[in-house]
Amino acid sequence: MTSRERILNAAIPVFARKGRHGAHMEEIAALAHINKAMIYYIFHNKDDLYLEVLKFVLAKARESLAFATYEDIKNEKSYEEVISNYISRQLSFFLENMNYTKIMIDAMSNGAEEIAVTMKYIKELERDNNTTIIFKSFIEKGKSEKRIRDIDTDQLVISMVGMVIIYFLSHSITEVFEIEVIDEAQFMEERKRSVIDLIMNGIMVSFQEETQIKKNKAS
Question: Measured in whole angstroms, how far is the alpha carbon of residue 136 from the centre of its chain?
Fold first, then answer.
């Protein structure tokens, strides 16, 4: 592992735990088992290191989420499958990579200027296959085929992401609404089913009819 990689690996949990402004280079250096001067030599300052961490985290999210969605669409999976998988993968990724999740949420909620720079970097990675554009075009296709209701695609995408990420903004949300979470893994599986059910029933023209037919066949 290179010094750069060691520093990034150490910086991620520190930024996740303490946020951008609470993180200290000394702690990152100690966790990386590297001289603090080496961090400044490679990254110059904490802001530059934070930007690189953000790029790394969002690139990992892209690898896990965007490519799979692109493959689903390319393989001509149904609208139900593509959209359900899109939601399910996001929930799984955020839950399984809590450090990444905390860093992304902190950056977005605080309006970090680095978000714009990072998104340019991500778009460059996706130069030939911009998954966001592909996914939105997929939704538009569904609307033209009368499979998806005539709704605002941009608003739909925001709503999907919002419903996925709200739980991770603060776990205290369960306390606010007096929700007892005994088994988080089980709760998140229920969360997936709930979000998918709400989205699909809200946007698919025939989803309710098809769901009822499947239930009737199963019984």
Answer: 16
